[in-house]
Write a structure and sequence with these properties.
Radius of gyration: 19 Å
Structural class: alpha/beta
Strand content: 15-25%
Number of domains: 2
Shape: elongated
Number of helices: 8
Strand order of the largest sheet: 2-1-3-4-5
Order of helices and strands: EHEHEHEHEHEEEEHHHEE
CATH architecture of the largest domain: 3-Layer(aba) Sandwich
CATH superfamily of the largest domain: Response regulator
Number of strands: 11
Largest sheet: 5 strands, parallel
Length: 225
């Protein structure tokens, strides 16, 4: 899951990046609303965390613009202002939830999980494909009952495939969804991670092509696996 955090308080942003990264989310950050808007238009995100008081373009206006352009990802607003009118304004602008600073980190993480579940209501709590099973709540992956020890990026790749089990993803699609723009990886990085997952799947008895290469297009889960 990829999250964009638009927050101009460096201390808060750094703490959230550490906490969210520990939960295996892919995090990108912007320090003003205009940059946030440009990033939303350039990259796919599963959730937005928007501060209300931002330079250049405030969070409420950014939220309104995002909704007017048809983006449907969940939006959680962060603000130091506790007035009920501010909450109403944010919710009316299209936000899904509203958290007051200073916030309890565990509560914020729980609200993020709830919003992401709400955005994926058609998905079961366990993501399964044949003998392959991913439990998003505990961030565990197994094949035929045997646990797989995956790196964060390998886990994110498998989750992407399982949440979109019929879709073919090109390497550039995968880079946009699972790497931040600051990391500057190459398409060879995607190949290396796919190779790593295949090796770990082979070690627990899965077929080598459970993640199938569609030549000239990209990768997908092999049908009828």
């Amino acid at each position: 899951m990829k999250i964009l955090l638009v927050e101009d308080d460096e201390r808060i942003a750094e703490a959230l990046v550490v906490a969210l990264s520990a939960q295996r989310y892919i995090i990108e950050t912007a320090t003003d609303g205009e940059t946030g808007r440009e990033m939303i238009e350039a990259f796919p995100y599963d959730l937005l965390l928007l501060d209300v008081l931002l330079p250049k373009l405030d969070g409420i206006s950014l939220c309104q613009q995002v909704r007017l352009k048809g983006y449907q990802m969940p939006i959680l607003m962060l603000t130091a202002r506790d007035a009920s009118t501010d909450k109403i304004t944010g919710l009316d602008a299209g936000a899904d939830d509203y958290v007051i600073k200073p916030f309890d980190l565990q509560e914020l993480l729980a609200r993020i999980r709830a919003l992401l579940r709400r955005g994926s209501t058609t998905l079961p709590p366990l993501l399964e494909w044949g003998k392959l099973c991913l439990n998003p709540n505990f961030q565990e992956v197994s094949y035929g009952g045997q646990s797989l020890n995956l790196t964060p990026k390998e886990y994110a790749l498998l989750e992407l495939f399982l949440r979109n089990s019929r879709r073919i993803f090109s390497r550039s699609d995968i880079l946009d969804r699972l790497w931040s723009s600051e990391e500057l990886p190459t398409e060879e990085t995607v190949k290396a991670h796919i190779r790593g997952i295949r090796q770990k799947l082979l070690a627990v008895g899965a077929s080598a092509d459970l993640i199938e290469t569609v030549y000239g297009v990209g990768y997908r889960l092999k049908q009828n696996s």
